Each structure stands twice: as structure tokens, then as C-alpha cells.
UniProtKB/TrEMBL annotation:
InterPro entries: Glyas_Bleomycin-R_OHBP_Dase (IPR029068), Glyas_Fos-R_dOase_dom (IPR004360), VOC_core (IPR037523). This is VOC family protein. SUPFAM superfamilies: Glyoxalase/Bleomycin resistance protein/Dihydroxybiphenyl dioxygenase (SSF54593). It comes from Haloferax namakaokahaiae. Residues 4-130 form the VOC domain.
Length: 132
């Protein structure tokens, strides 16, 4: 049966630009950056010490024109991924200082304090400080 979740794929317009944004703005570490076919790369980033990695997938025509076009159309239209934070308000303040777009200011909910951000392509993330 399924034993673990290892990667979440995020579609991006430019892998190099995305690496810079995720490492500089969110403070993630670059885990992998390898060419595995001409025009195709495997790029992953993650919070330092985190187990689950984000695969930054840049659609290229090597996927086939139709599939690449469909993938490009989905950039910025992902379902929000939840990122755990220790202090939601402090994290939002730090990310704002780094130029990250905040789409929902921190608010208290029964499950904790949460806020929303988007990456440079509009891919959404929810920051969650758990109530427990």
C-alpha cells in the first residue's frame, strides 16, 4: 500500500527563476537539479530538514506539444499546498519583507492561524500555525 508522500509537483514557467524565488524568498534549500533528457530537468526544493520535496516542473515541448500546452495552461492554477509554520504572523511579516505576495492576511481559525501566499507564477500556498 502507499507508505509515504515524497514530492508535490508545482508547474513553473522557468525552472531557474523558480529556484531563485523558492530559495531566496521562502528560504528553501535546493535538493536536486539534474538534466535527465535533452530539454528536461528534475528540480526539487524543500524547507531545510523537511521530508516532502516540491518538484519544480517546467513544461517543455519534449513532453509533446499538446501535453506541454496543457501543463502551461495550469501554471498558477494549482490547489493550495499547506506549509507548516511556527508563528504565522512573524512568517508573513518576514515573507512580506522579502517581496512575497500575501493574498490572505493571518487569521485565527479553530484549527490554528493561517494565511495565504502565492509564488511568482500565482501558485497558491497556505501557511498554517497549528492550534495544537
Amino acid at each position: 500500500m502507499i507508505s509515504d508522500l515524497t514530492h508535490v509537483t508545482v508547474l513553473v514557467e522557468d525552472a531557474d527563476e523558480a529556484i531563485e524565488w523558492y530559495t531566496d524568498k521562502l528560504g528553501f534549500e535546493l535538493r536536486d537539479d539534474e538534466a535527465y533528457e535533452p530539454g528536461m530537468r528534475w528540480v526539487t526544493v524543500a524547507p531545510e530538514g523537511g521530508d516532502v520535496e516540491i518538484a519544480l516542473q517546467q513544461p517543455t515541448d519534449e513532453f509533446g506539444e499538446a501535453q506541454a500546452a496543457e501543463m502551461r495552461d495550469r501554471i498558477g492554477k494549482a490547489t493550495p499546498t499547506v506549509l507548516a509554520v511556527d508563528d504565522c504572523r512573524a512568517t508573513v511579516a518576514e515573507l512580506r519583507d522579502r517581496g512575497v505576495e500575501i493574498t490572505l492576511e493571518p487569521e485565527e481559525m479553530p484549527w490554528g492561524t493561517h494565511a495565504n501566499i502565492v509564488d511568482l507564477y500565482g501558485n497558491p500556498y497556505n501557511l498554517l500555525e497549528s492550534a495544537e
